[in-house]
TrEMBL record, chains A, B:
TM annotation in the entry: none
Gene that this sequence comes from: LOC107032032
PANTHER family for this protein: DIAMINE N-ACETYLTRANSFERASE, GH14572P-RELATED
InterPro entries (alphabetical): Acyl_CoA_acyltransferase, Diverse_Substrate_AcTransf, GNAT_dom
Top-level division of the source organism's lineage: Eukaryota
Residue span(s) of domain N-acetyltransferase: 85-232
Gene3D superfamilies: 3.40.630.30
Protein's organism: Solanum pennellii (Tomato)
Keyword field contains Ribonucleoprotein: no
Protein's UniProt keywords contain Membrane: no
Record-linked SUPFAM superfamilies: Acyl-CoA N-acyltransferases (Nat)
Pfam families: Acetyltransf_1
Protein's UniProt name: Probable acetyltransferase NATA1-like
Entry keyword set: Acyltransferase, Transferase
């Protein structure tokens, strides 16, 4: 705790704010909004970048068309009741307000102050329509269910921030947006998986209060084994 | 491989089937059907028995009322698009056909031949309405999503068979019913979790062709930590 400061001198011009209270560096405006079908080309590129990052491109078979038909089918259920995508956009200028008000959700705006400007070599291909914003990341989640709580929760399948936007708090913003939505809807839990060797991520999750279920193992039945077992 | 058998003597009366080909023991009729809101009292008891089995009753807070409102809300989405429960019923007599035909799903009937009859000390409290059947188990599952495949799958939250019905193939029948449903709907995967010390279960799952994702750890944000992080 700092020593008690002497009483401040009377302010001659109260309207002037001390310079060291002014934000230094660069302001970046960010917005988290619900993705729509017109965002599919960006979502497809983001998922592909994630597959490259995870060295799993051999497992990647999504196309723009298959993403459109499964994430945004005709007669889509309302957001949050099925597969839901939040997009993270960043811009040098403030975002206009958009009409995207679902029950319990409005786009989230935050201004982030950075020491250095961000150089985005892929800005052109991630340009978001309608303003000077670019798409910087996404989170895909859907409801899951706890029988012990008799409550839904959210399961986060993917969370991804493009390389030049990492280590600036954007991943935490996406995760927090899902947690906030769960809390608003009275849901009991938010869950996701992490690789056991990713110690930095595990440390980050534990510091924010998440439990890591050390004894659980995910089992997966897919491909020919799924077809064969389906016919038992 | 057994030695070649001598040719069989000509059958004097081909209509008579050799006695050792006749089923011995006891026939039990089983049915897997979609649960409805009237099954909630049974589902509640089954979940409670599961909590006792897992020594997790301190985490059990479901009530019949909370299960009804979350599993079978007003304007429920169609089965398989959200939280879905298959009930396993068994009976000494064949099941009547019921009118429960959803797209791609009709109740599954199987006759199981057992060496010994099953003594069910809780038969009265698990009596299923409308016939002499009892509820013997359940599986609760819901859609999940793979971004790499751009396909939905099913996640099995719980699978449970009451004690006196275990080790008779009923668990496998429930799991297979979910796999069959996934295959019919063109879904890519069925996933669930298992405890790492449950080596018998892991062996069983691996033998049926499931992969156990050894490096994955489930993270869970719940309770006060969820509320706190939601306000970041």
């Amino acid at each position: 705790m700092a020593a008690a400061a002497p009483p401040p001198p009377p302010s001659p011009t109260p309207a002037i704010i001390s310079e060291d209270l002014l934000p230094t560096g660069y302001n970046v405006f960010s917005r988290i909004r619900l993705a729509t079908i017109v965002d599919v080309p960006h979502i497809h590129k983001l998922i592909h970048q994630m597959a490259v990052f995870e060295r799993l491109t051999h497992l990647f078979s999504a196309t723009e068309s298959s993403l459109s038909s499964t994430l945004f089918p005709e007669n889509s259920p309302p957001p949050f009741t099925s597969f839901t995508v939040f997009l993270l956009e960043v811009s040098q200028t403030p975002f206009p307000l958009i009409d995207q008000n679902y029950p319990n959700f409005s786009p989230i705006h935050k201004t982030v102050n950075l020491d250095l400007p961000i150089t985005d070599p892929q800005a052109e291909s991630f340009r978001s329509c309608g303003n000077d914003a670019v798409v910087a990341g996404f989170v895909l989640f859907f409801p899951n269910y706890s029988t012990f709580l008799a409550k839904p929760g959210f399961y986060i399948e993917d969370i991804f921030v493009r390389e030049c936007y990492r280590r600036k708090g954007f991943g935490k913003m996406l995760l927090s947006a899902v947690a906030a939505q769960a809390a608003k809807m009275g849901y009991g839990r938010v869950e996701w998986v992490v690789l056991d060797w990713n110690v930095n991520a595990i440390k980050f999750y534990e510091e924010m209060g998440a439990q890591v279920m050390q004894e659980w193992r995910v089992c997966r039945l897919t491909g020919d084994a799924l077809q064969a077992f389906a016919n038992v």
